[in-house]
Amino acid sequence: RDAKARYVKFHWKPTCGVSCLMDDEATLVGGKNHSHATQDLYDSIAAGNFPEWKLFVQVIDPEEEERFDFDPLDDTKTWPEEEVPLRPVG
């Protein structure tokens, strides 16, 4: 809009939620099928349950970079949602 540069972090969030395995479950499942997550995806698609994600962005002005106690341009860092809220895009 105003032709100013912005820093943007993109987030794709699955609409089906996220579920994780506990250590003992991961060992058991991974020992039986090391591609269990891929197999689950294929099985879901075959059953007509297609994966969907929603896109969110976090946006800051370059001048705001110094307000963080970490480098916001470091891809390994997470921007706090309390300070930089997620904005739905699609």
Automatic annotation (TrEMBL):
GO biological process: hydrogen peroxide catabolic process; response to hydrogen peroxide
Catalase core domain segment(s): 3-90
Record bears the keyword Nucleotide-binding: no
UniProt KW keywords: Oxidoreductase, Peroxidase
Gene Ontology cellular component terms for the protein in this record: peroxisome; plasma membrane
Source species, domain of life: Eukaryota
Pfam families in UniProt: Catalase
EC number: 1.11.1.6
SUPFAM superfamilies membership: Heme-dependent catalase-like (SSF56634)
Region named Disordered: 70-90
Aminoacyl-tRNA synthetase listed as a keyword: no
Any one GO molecular function term: catalase activity
Gene3D superfamilies: Catalase core domain (2.40.180.10)
EC class (word): oxidoreductase
Xref: InterPro entries: Catalase (IPR018028), Catalase_core (IPR011614), Catalase_sf (IPR020835)
UniProt-listed PANTHER family: CATALASE (PTHR11465), CATALASE ISOZYME A (PTHR11465:SF45)
Protein name: Catalase
